[in-house]
Write a structure and sequence with these properties.
Chain lengths: 255, 255
Amino acid sequence: MQVVAVSHPKGGVAKTTSAAALAGALVRMGHRVLVVDLDPQSSLTLALGHLPNRVWPTLAEVLQYRHGLEEAVHATQVKGLDLIPASPKLALVQRELHGQEDYTVLRARFRSWLNQSSYDYVLLDTPPGQGLLTLNALILAQQVLIPTQPEYFSAYALRYLLQTIRWVRLRFQPLLAYQAFLTMYQSRNRAHAWIRARLEVTLGPGLCRTVIPLDTKVREAAIAGLPVTHFAPKSRAARAYLALAQEVFTHEQQA
Amino acid sequence: MQVVAVSHPKGGVAKTTSAAALAGALVRMGHRVLVVDLDPQSSLTLALGHLPNRVWPTLAEVLQYRHGLEEAVHATQVKGLDLIPASPKLALVQRELHGQEDYTVLRARFRSWLNQSSYDYVLLDTPPGQGLLTLNALILAQQVLIPTQPEYFSAYALRYLLQTIRWVRLRFQPLLAYQAFLTMYQSRNRAHAWIRARLEVTLGPGLCRTVIPLDTKVREAAIAGLPVTHFAPKSRAARAYLALAQEVFTHEQQA
Ligand SMILES: Nc1ncnc2c1ncn2[C@@H]1O[C@H](COP(=O)(O)OP(=O)(O)OP(=O)(O)O)[C@@H](O)[C@H]1O
Ligand SMILES: Nc1ncnc2c1ncn2[C@@H]1O[C@H](COP(=O)(O)OP(=O)(O)OP(=O)(O)O)[C@@H](O)[C@H]1O
Ligand SMILES: [Mg+2]
Ligand SMILES: [Mg+2]
């Protein structure tokens, strides 16, 4: 059982899209997968066909110790892929965590339950920024996948997440590994090639070889409530996410 | 003097790009403008040519009462456009706000100083999500501009911001106005036209007629540290932001 956080402090770099698509790829590879939505904006919940104001209970009720984990697991349109949804109430839960001495509630709630569950992979989708929900995800996870858009703000903000990973390694988990990968990549765009070359230098083995191309099928998949791997399996994005899952999950690269 | 917040809880919808470009447009219209970066990721600081780990003092020192506002104002490459930069330390300031009875520190620090300053417009760039820094911006501002990408997650998350605006109107400022506008719009994209039509119905006069097109000049402007209105004044995005500034700022539409 492998717990993987998908995180990047910059907004709109394809964290949610990647969490859904990698989960879809892992299901295609024959694994049983659980995804957890930690974003009060609930994009992953929407991306997998649920409405955050209807589906219940959600992660908020689990973190408030109002419901068990089992009850918050919901099926998706993809067999073998389950979801613990988010809701706007998570913002309240995050605010309440600030007052607490020990804010590592995700680990406290999930750790022993996950070890006994039958999932092969658990993917955690995090909100933008570096709030306490994101920190909780990094403390529970064994591996962080970092979607990075080949543009200035996102490449620059990467350093903030790498600093946080170093801090989590010191305080909580010395073996927390990370790998970044490029998303929404356009091979004919000179600025994209330039940023890619720079990231290869600064990240070395920490940057995946597989690159996710810009592909409008991704946006259509979100409206259909399906990962792009299941909405348009022959699309360039679906094939790239399958290749990425094989690169990242077959031999865990330490970085 | 008009204080305007640029906000949307979804990440990557062009909040920062719009704050810089609208400020550039207002300068072209002859106004003196101050922009304030409230995002710990400091994208607006980068977008206007400063490095968050070098420029000092920043908004964090102002909100901690360590430095006066005057000292935190920095010039940009655009004459008539000044910046109060952000830094990663803002994340710490935001965490500290959680413990306080009265978290409306932005209004406390800025209100009387702004009334005496010679700026015509002050634009506040907010981080994604709905944390206390964003809430502070909505409490100080008289108008909220809401950049909205014509895609599923961003159109859905709009409701969360509108709820927050209604709450701020009840608790703090009954006259807080808002207007949404479409960004990164591709006229030949059917899903974009569909989402636009839906937003016209749900928002009515709250949706601007001016639409900002997808334009690669925007990304190049960010690397050059200039608003797109000054980097590529004849570009489609620059002309659209000028038209948007004229639509929004000449006759304040209440919504
Ligand atoms: N490969 C791709 N091709 C085209 N569009 C994409 C691709 N990946 C993501 N997108 C689109 O980019 C937008 C941002 O993606 P997404 O919401 O997954 O990012 P995020 O990092 O999760 O955002 P947030 O910071 O708000 O959580 C969405 O509209 C999504 O559909
Ligand atoms: N009209 C446009 N055409 C092309 N690219 C654009 C346009 N507007 C914004 N972008 C690009 O989209 C990305 C996201 O924009 P930006 O960072 O301004 O969004 P944001 O809402 O401020 O993100 P965050 O939620 O992280 O604060 C940036 O790479 C930016 O250059
Ligand atoms: Mg997301
Ligand atoms: Mg921004």
